[in-house]
TrEMBL record:
GO MF term list: ATP binding; ATP hydrolysis activity
A UniProt-annotated Pfam family: AAA_5
Matching InterPro entries: AAA+_ATPase, ATPase_dyneun-rel_AAA, CbbQ/NirQ/NorQ/GpvN, P-loop_NTPase
AAA+ ATPase domain span: 25-183
CDD domains: AAA
Descriptive protein name: MoxR-like ATPase
Amino acid sequence: MRFSGTETYVATPDLTAAVNAAVVLERPLLVKGEPGTGKTVLAEEIAKGLNAPLIVWNIKSTTKAQQGLYEYDAVSRLRDSQLGDPRVSDIGNYIRRGKLWEAFTAPERPVLLIDEIDKADIEFPNDLLTELDRMEFHVYETGETVKAVRRPIVIITSNNEKELPDAFLRRCFFHYIKFPDSETLQRIVDVHYPGIKHRLVEEALRTFLAMREVPGLKKKPSTSELLDWLKLLVSEDIAPETLREQDGRKLIPPLHGALLKNEQDVSLFEKLAFMMRREQRGG
């Protein structure tokens, strides 16, 4: 069982090596990288490439580790007992299985995505240490122990909003997805838009990479935003020559709302355009 990328996902050699190392070691793969570099999509493509079911646990700021195991709905049981519902005799009717329970008992070895773990409380990773290490947990209400039939392939993503505990990191195989170079970006574009004009892609990539190098950007445009921008350029039939124009009026590219996602960065480019126009007029 080895991952080598898919037809719709360009995986670099270091990324495929990291995935396969985590599979062999049977440890969670902790993936970090800039937003928009394909961390979440990676789990989907691993599942597709290995022909495995995918189970997704999206983490929010309010998510508790216990929710990944199970939740006991005591309120519903109390209400049903007051109504004389015969189901109250079996407490198991009020146990809601979480994503880890689902992954542990899946008939086939699944890929379990724990997405954006850094959004949760700082204690969240520590609360999962034993369960992810031993691949089992105890259900106190029923007295049963849920143990993984097969160790799931666990992919954990983080955007570095919070530091993760050392004890948690020791149990993971780590990989940082670097921002793609121009050659890899070209391959990614070819996968998503195989019929797109070469000159348009060439000019778009040149503009895109130049924008990422502008000092002071609050949020650099990402790979996913590049793909959105290219889709719009094709839809609006923007000519490559339009992107090549570099006078002050054209410093901000057309349809830049797909690339610049806050007013500070738009303002930065407007100031740069103003300075360029003033230089062109000779000060």
